[in-house]
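Model: You mentioned two targets. I'll fold them one after the other.
Researcher: Yes, keep them separate.
Model: Target one:
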Amino acid sequence: MKKPIKKVLDNGMRIIVVPMPGSPTVTTVALVEAGSKYETKENNGISHFLEHMFFKGTQKRKKSIEISGELDGLGAMSNAFTWYEYTGYYAKARAKHFKKITDVISDMFLNSEFPEVEIEKERGVIIAEIDMYKDLPQVSVEELLDKLMHGDQPAGWSILGPKSNIRKISRNDFLEYRKKHYVASKTAVVVSGDVNPKEVFTEVEKKFKDISTDKGGTKPRVVEKQSKKQVAVKYKKTDQSHLVIGFRTYGVKGKNNIKLKVLADVFGGSMSSRLFQSLREELGVAYYTRSSNQAFTDTGVFSISAGVDPKRIEEVLTAISNEIKDIKTNLVTEKELNKSKEHIMGSLSMGLEASDKVAMWIANQEMMHQDLMTPEMLLKEIKKMTPNDIKKMANLVFKEEKMNLAIVGPHKNGEDLLKHLNV
């Protein structure tokens, strides 16, 4: 990947171009620092609801069909997403359509009108989405872990919000929220593809010239308090028990995050990882199992996930405990470590073959206020990892008093299950 080129405008808005000579496509993504962590209990869910409403019509394109029809006419792919820390809107098309997709994205971002009739219709859509994810235990167990680890603060709330909020959020709420958060200093536009950086800077600055220059809102810092391991169980009649074990780690600027990435891959990041081999290949108790580290601006979570036979969940917790103890006690071999290093870089390289993936890779770093890093720069750091680094990180992170277990399945007594998890 070529090094990203960044320009900060006088109003604070950031524009980043990632040149991809020869790429057949271009992607434009506009992002704003406004996600569920910026919400209050009263408006929890508004960031995601607002994201939906940006597709419902603007001053220039009055109806949603005008937006989708224009993008379809360009052969473009377009979507949006809401996360804890930010929200993004993007379009991807053939490189020659850069100006046209940027015009559509900027128009939605700046000029959406939120018609009352569309708000009322979209309430039902959002509620259906909430119900859909509640029916997916692999998803609801992640929300259960958030609530267990962070409690009654934004980091512990659902991105979609409760149905009660969705039913009462008004057009005025949308207008006030956009006015507060969708401002230049909290906005970044990333463009990747076979484009001329100078032309991109000129075009994006022109399209976003009317963006608000107000100060912008902030989010509260996550409060973390935990002195002993804890468990949360959501009883549900399922054929599989879905579990996630979460350990507290570090924010994105923590010096250990790259080491945690490698630890996660060694432990449960591939089909040859320790967790996969133990639970699926040796015990035959799980179809999916994985581990990963997620870093936010001020916190982090190392998670271990699996879907297992409810009758064998105690056996699974014991097996996971044994794998954790082993990686804390014994050094991984150079061969195993090198395999994980190659797996990480191979997966990343294949994942960054398209312009949209490159744009999202850089966009996430920018919105999390990191120094922009190319895959080559990441590889350089990963290569420095030693077996002793893995052992040190395992002992630093896998602490029993900082452990959290979330389970969705046909279980009622979480404390009894927690006894089988000892690290």
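Model: Target two:
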Amino acid sequence: MEGISKSFGGVAALRDVDFELREGEVHGLVGENGAGKSTMMKIIAGVHTGYTGRMLLDGKQVHFHSARDALDAGIGMVHQELSIVPDLSVAENVYLGKQPTKNGVVDWKAMREGAKRQLEMLGIDVDPRATMGSLPIGLQQLIELARVIYSGARIIILDEPTSALSPPEVRRLFEVLRGVRASGRSIVFISHFLDDILEISDTVTIFRNGRRVATQPVPAIDKSWVIEQMIGAGHQDLEESYTGAIALDSKPTAPIVLAATGLSSGRAFSDISLQVRAGEVLGIYGFMGCGQLELARALFGKLKPEAGGLAIEGKPIRFRNTAQARKAGIAFVPESRRSMLFYHEPVFKNVSISSLGRISRLWLKPAVERSIADKQAKALNIRPANVKALLGGLSGGNQQKVALAKWLAYPTKVLVLSEPTRGMDVGAKDDVVKIVRGLRDQGMAVVVVSAEPETVLSLADRIVVMKKGRIVKEFASEAISKDRLLEAA
């Protein structure tokens, strides 16, 4: 890639960037949200077609006009926001666009057997006939990885591939990627998990503000150097906040806002009892598939438990739907931003949608909507601050702030956050940490559900650990490290 520049609506996303990918290497790509790394990779993958500069493949200039063009040239990409088809089966997703045929018709048996074989090579045990949308997001991510890895692509671009995976699954993925590299294929590995980048990559490139600022072989660098290149010097404390021991500060005498007693839901979770107090962040940690994501949905009425009950401020309550949960003062930000935001609408419409009934029951009032959104944009430091801008033009970290703003514009007693920092760089994570701590200090009860130990450690005042659908450990009023958390899970 030579002198690549790309703008969106007059805002430069890439500025005269050079980038080289060599045969048989894993090239790590890091940078803050909005630094330009995903934009560059989407150009290579044929998603973004309007740019200036030159792309050369095997020394010959190319310009892809679609993702199909790139795929035909041997380039495949797994995006951070998955491109699965939820209503199709696992096997159909693995073979999307290239189903095996026999006598001119789809060979369903061969497709199911092939999908099962490919998934088993990644350590994935799942029925190929299962509907894709019924699976946890982390499992969907692994299946899409399998589709691209086994598509025959010789350049594989992975955007945040480990963000929803547990440590054992990450280790299995890295084994597969090392095998892919040994076969002579090339991998671009985009991640905000710097430990993952340094473990799997041969070379690392850092982007900042739409420019490439450094490229170095991994043996010559360390984590502190990478962070300094990403966001400048003076961030040692920020780095340590995600890796060192954290002193938990539970609030045992604060009023109980939300209580769950004996909640059970099939194989997802069983006999869950917990309490969340005013002015406290309760962290719920566990590996992918331990039931924590389903529990978060149950707290918001998206999933109806088969047994047990909930109480808000001591009053028993049973939610028939999410509208009742919202009316009771519970807000929920899911792990997938795409499921709750409107990317082709302006920021202010995304923020005000939860409050429209309070603004007017007869007609829309855009000026009032913008006023509400302006207040939230300032409070959460949403960048750019122009609430008329389309949401799709914001970085992932700022989109997550909009997702928070949507609920904070509505009176909230309990805020349930599922994977709130998924796919964010350390700077954007720090913004979210400050926002959540600010809400806690105002007296709000907050539940943070995550498979990322760094996320739970940086946010929680008290932590419960889930394993195979049950709470197995609680940490409160003590120092807790990442190692102890992983050991408990």
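Researcher: Noted. Anything on target two?
Model: The longest helix spans residues 167-182.
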